[in-house]
Amino acid sequence: MRAVVHIITKFEGVTGGGVQRAILLGKMLARHARVKLWSTHVPHPDVLKQANVTTIEPLRLQFPRSGTFVVVGSYVHVGRWIRWARPQRKIVILNTEAPDEARRLCGALAATGGPHCDIVYADEELRDGIGIPGTVQLSPIDIERFRPAGRPAGAGFTVGRMSRDYRYKFHETGPDLFRRMAGCGMTVRIMGGTCLAGELQGVESVALKPTGAESAVDFLHSLDCLLYRTRSDWYETFGRVVFEAMACGLPVICGARGGYAKYIKHGVNGYLFDDDDEAAKILLRLRDDARLRADIGRNARGTVERMYGPQFEEEIARYYVPR
Description:
Blueprint: E1 4-9, H1 17-29, E2 34-39, H2 45-50, E3 53-55, E4 68-72, E5 89-94, H3 99-111, E6 117-121, H4 124-130, E7 135-136, E8 158-162, H5 174-183, E9 187-191, E10 206-209, H6 216-221, E11 225-228, H7 240-247, E12 252-255, E13 271-273, H8 276-288, H9 290-307, H10 310-320
Parallel strand pairs: 1-2, 1-4, 2-3, 4-5, 5-6, 6-7, 8-9, 8-11, 9-10, 11-12, 12-13
Helix pairs in contact: 5-8
């Protein structure tokens, strides 16, 4: 009989990194075990277009039972139903810097008795900050879906940015840099940027779209490079969009602090910067040198192919599926 893995999270929206991690982890593990996705809330309709998700309803006795339980995200609240679920193994995946919530969740799972709770972190700095021992794993990326497409000749130079539509996802000086780019003749596309509407009002070359206005693949294929830096007090533990852009063969220009930084070799497969002046110089150089853009993008694609080669799935399957 094949092992059973239950993946549990909120599934409140399709664009969040935790939800995408849960969906892609489920697809990957389905080749090695029986996998079922469970939502602690009614799943968002867009989630149901990508995956088969069942809502946990304790009053109807509808909840996961036995097998391996994988809870994705520190903000998930596990109800009393877990006392009757009898998991054989409990795993928590932590993606965000929320130590109080992480300790609450781990404590709640530990209080139910049964097996020890294993922790998986998005990166080492997050693990060190929360202070509970655990394993660091890459979040899955579908590099067959995110592939280079090439830009039509004469399309102009377009810089893009994609994230959830919250102001903390943007650096404090982000709007100033976007205005500066527009003033240099660049087109700026920001999906998940309507929160900046007041700060960028009247800047014609900056297009602000809500999160999910188009597919992530189509959006990235409309760009020549990706610019990404979050607010100075928000640590991006992984940065899924950075690796999706790299998989599409795009140069990425990223703030130096983030979980993605260890995979970016400055000037080889992407760029890291500390301030707006440095970012502007990199962008101008890329705008004026198509060959450089192609070389950096090719190296970026090669990086994610090495990160997510066959060995990645083998390691993930070994961790989650009992032998």
